[in-house]
Write a structure and sequence with these properties.
The chain has nine helices and 14 strands. It is of the alpha+beta class and 321 residues long. It has two domains: 101 residues, no CATH class; 192 residues, no CATH class. Strands 1-2-3-14 form a four-stranded antiparallel beta sheet, with no helix packed on it. Strand 9 and strand 10 form a beta hairpin. The longest helix is centred in the first third of the chain and has 27 residues. The termini are far apart.
Length: 321
């Protein structure tokens, strides 16, 4: 469902929201060439999924912003290396250098995993990887994933999930919600069954990552937000705004995670991207069954709220013991 010509807007939230609703490839190609907002152009290219077109834009687009953002989507090490060496814009070269480092690290990790694999098919754990996913030990009760569910690197926003659902979708209204059609018509985790904690089958982190990975409880989010445990600094990683959360625990003060300001989905549109973050817990709101506990932040505020309507599309940051 299209929302008009919002993709022409210079406002990133409006432009990106419109592109999210478009599936027509010809229109996406037009947006990639004509949209004035770099995020809209980048998203159009990603939705088309054409790596060759992404590579072309990364090398030849007139805007350094577009080239800088597209180079982060490339998987071809040699091409990224050429851009790092030859682009005439310093910021693009720096982004290419960062992407090159990421790709080389991924190569090393893949090689390490292969060397550590056994014929018994046992799950292998390295110093910072469990079940194939990176984590950071902040010295708290759980280890936190290094990136959002659905992300491929730390600065990625990742996917958006309704509470108790395990996949992304285009429409986050009650009419598409898995566990009921309205706040007064819930089929699970309701006033009737009094279910408070998500079951494993409805936990997006567990279903997608497997093993012992799961969504954090409300208590675990509160532990992370406790200023006695961690410092929170509003910053940017690869031009993505969000919070750098650094441990204050003895022996862990060099450890941190980054929580992107990924916004949230209401209906078919994303809101608050780059200015706010909404992250689900696995804990339902006890007084109001149609809501669940979540982390909410903006540059001037961080807190745990109990008013996240379950049908909304929020981010998920997995945890593991």
């Amino acid at each position: 469902m299209r929302s008009g010509l919002g993709w022409r807007s210079l406002n990133p939230v409006e432009a990106v929201a419109d592109v999210h609703s478009i599936e027509n490839r010809d229109l996406l190609l037009r947006i990639a060439y004509e949209a004035r907002n770099p995020e809209a152009r980048r998203l159009a290219l990603i939705k088309m999924g054409d790596k060759r077109l992404m590579a072309s834009f990364a090398q030849s687009d007139s805007s350094p912003i577009v080239r800088r953002r597209m180079v982060r989507e490339l998987d071809d090490i040699e091409l990224v290396r050429r851009i790092a060496e030859n682009d005439d814009d310093r910021s693009v070269r720096e982004s290419a250098d960062q992407r090159l480092t990421q790709l080389e690290e991924l190569q090393e990790k893949d090689a390490r995993k292969g060397a550590e694999s056994s014929n018994q098919g046992e799950e292998k754990t390295t110093a910072d990887v469990i079940n194939g996913h990176e984590y950071v030990d902040l010295g708290l009760s759980v280890k936190w994933a290094a990136m959002n569910l659905g992300a491929t690197r730390v600065s990625d926003r990742g996917g958006h999930y309704a509470w108790g659902e395990t996949g992304n979708k285009a429409d986050y209204t009650w009419s598409t919600y898995k566990h009921g059609t309205s706040a007064d018509d819930l089929s699970k985790y309701s006033y009737t069954d009094n279910g408070i904690a998500l079951q494993a089958a409805d936990d997006a982190a567990h279903v997608n990552w497997g093993g012992a990975w799961r969504m954090p409880t409300g208590t675990e989010w509160e532990e992370l937000c406790d200023r006695c445990n961690c410092t929170w600094e509003w910053t940017s990683v690869d031009e993505t705004p969000g919070y750098r959360v650094t441990s204050k625990k003895e022996g862990y003060t060099d450890k941190s995670i980054f929580l992107p300001a990924a916004g949230y989905y209401r209906g078919c549109s994303i809101e608050g991207a780059e200015s706010s973050g909404y992250y689900w817990s696995s804990t339902r709101n006890k007084p109001f069954a149609d809501r669940a506990l979540c982390l909410y932040f903006i540059p001037t505020f961080i807190g745990i709220g109990n008013n996240g309507f379950r049908n909304g599309g929020f981010s998920v940051r997995p945890v593991i013991k």
